[in-house]
Specification:
Elements (H helix, E strand, L loop, with lengths): L2 E8 L5 E2 L15 E8 L31 E2 L4 H7 L3 E2 L3 E6 L5 H14 L4 E5 L4 H10 L7 E5 L3 H11 L3 E5 L16 H18 L2 E6 L12 H5 L2 E6 L6 E9 L7 E7 L2 E4 L3 H6 L9 E8 L2 E13 L7 E4 L3 H15 L6 E7 L11 H13 L7 E3 L2 E2 L5 E2 L4 H10 L4 E5 L13 E5 L2 H8 L3
Parallel strand pairs: 6-10, 6-11, 7-8, 7-9, 9-10, 17-18, 19-22, 22-23
Antiparallel strand pairs: 1-2, 1-3, 4-5, 11-12, 12-13, 13-14, 15-16, 16-18, 20-21
């Protein structure tokens, strides 16, 4: 005899409570507790066989385990291969999140077509669009491959039977918030449904060796909707970022069991779909203004790729008691720290100045090698003196005003030389052990004061 009982589950972290509460004790979010029905007692008979019905494994000494190379399925998108670590790993579960309309479905439909052209059987499951709507998008993207199967369904039982019938190598679920487990009583998109559906898809991927892509909705804060457990269960978490008013998109990995989490892929949205951007540095610098103060260029590392970006600063006298510190693409705490170093070690009076900083192109920089470029930008705007347009500045700044060593300096300098920069200001400890490209002047500095003297030397 089954008995229905209600419980309240936080839609952010999955915390369960017998009564409603305004604030979740688990994550501290407000108004996230949603009522769901819990069936207590005899459970209904399972409607389909779970994928984990395999022979139980035994504990094995680590010295007797044979290692083997994980086979990867490369796509025709080099940028996606870079982010994934070389290609799609068979049996992996990949979660892709992003804002509505950013291009997640377009990216996965293009990837599905490329893999199907390479004779890999692909099953694209759409829970948000009908087959005809998906076909309209496919026609716009010039997609026509007999190895690409389209299936519009949200019932996980039907999805499981279709996977058993077709036996694909790649499966795309668009999106996980629309899929529901028939044995879970809550509504599709709830914490219980998302957790159970993802767990079943993970069992299918691991036992059958099928690579599964899952599209996830995001909250208004930009995080993937659903419990945090969802990101722990999958093998790879990708974020598809960009502004809807611009055509450029950034694919970034925040978790990857089969590769680096620092890689970044750049795409451009066009009428025929997403196209790769071979040299992102040219894009970030193409609209750089000449002769303006407060602008510097830094060579930042995104994984194994050096990317040149422009850092802009605007320093103006404040009209309030407390000066404002605003930053886009850089941590504002780092900006406050560097302004304190400039005031204490260099003598710039910045305590009565508003500071506004931005990384052009919508890129987010978090490595310490950008410190010196940020400091030079602030000093350039404060003094209203421009830096050379052919200068590139690299270095980490300490609290005592010293410029510290950074990693992969040779790759950064080569990327700057490739784009026509003639002078590179680097930490003095990075000099030696490598050779600069021909025609490039490399200047080593030990303090922020030295860097400013060289930067403003006409």
């Amino acid at each position: 005899m089954t008995k229905k009982k209600t419980k309240y589950i936080c839609q952010t972290c999955g915390y369960e409570s017998a009564k409603w509460m305004g604030r979740c004790p688990g994550c501290g979010e407000w108004n996230q507790m949603v009522e769901e029905v819990d069936i207590v007692g005899k459970q209904p008979k399972r409607s389909f066989q779970h994928s984990d019905s395999t022979v139980a494994s035994k504990a094995t000494p680590i010295t007797s385990i044979e290692t083997q190379h994980e086979p990867r399925i490369p796509t025709q998108m080099k940028e996606l291969n870079r982010v994934l670590g070389g290609g799609v790993v068979a049996g992996s579960l990949i979660l892709i999140g992003g804002d509505p309309g950013i291009g997640k479905s377009t990216l996965l439909l293009q990837v599905s077509n490329q893999l199907s052209v390479l004779k890999h059987k692909v099953l694209y499951i759409s829970g948000e669009e009908s087959i005809r709507q998906t076909k309209l998008r496919a026609d716009r993207l010039l997609i026509s491959s007999p190895e690409l199967y389209i299936y519009a369904e949200t019932n996980l039982e039907s999805i499981h039977h279709t996977i058993e019938e077709i036996s694909p190598q790649i499966v795309v679920i668009d999106s996980i918030q629309t899929v529901y487990h028939p044995e879970v009583t809550s509504a599709p998109g709830s914490v219980s449904q998302v957790r159970e559906c993802t767990a079943e898809l993970m069992r299918i991927a691991k036992t059958k060796g099928i690579a599964i892509f899952i599209v996830g909705h995001v909250t208004k804060e930009g995080a993937i909707a659903g419990p945090r457990l969802l990101e722990h269960m999958v093998d790879t978490v990708l974020y598809f970022e960009g502004e809807r008013h611009h055509t450029y998109r950034i694919l970034r990995a925040v978790k990857n069991r089969f590769g680096s989490t620092n890689e970044m892929g750049i795409f451009e949205m066009k009428e025929s779909g997403l196209e790769e951007v071979a040299n992102p540095s040219e894009i970030f610098l193409e609209e750089r203004s000449k002769g303006a103060s407060g602008s510097t260029v830094v060579a930042s590392m995104e994984g194994t790729r050096p990317v040149l970006v422009e850092i802009q600063a605007l320093i103006s006298p404040t009209s309030f008691g407390n000066p404002r510190r605003m930053a886009t693409g850089i941590d504002h705490n780092r900006v406050s720290l560097l302004m304190a170093v400039l005031e204490k070690r260099v003598g710039l009076l910045l305590q009565n100045q508003d500071a506004y900083l931005k990384v052009a192109g919508g890129v987010k920089l978090d490595e310490p090698a950008i410190d010196l470029a940020v400091a030079v930008s602030i000093a350039s705007s404060f003094r209203d003196k421009q830096t050379r347009p052919t200068d590139c500045i690299i270095g980490e700044v300490g609290l005592t005003g010293e410029v510290r060593r950074v990693s992969r300096i040779e790759q950064r300098v080569q990327e700057a030389a490739k784009l026509g920069f003639l002078r590179i200001i680097v930490p003095a400890n990075n000099l030696g052990g490598w050779r600069a490209p021909k025609g490039i002047e490399v200047i080593g500095v030990g303090t922020v004061g030295e860097a400013l003297k060289h930067a403003f030397d006409s």
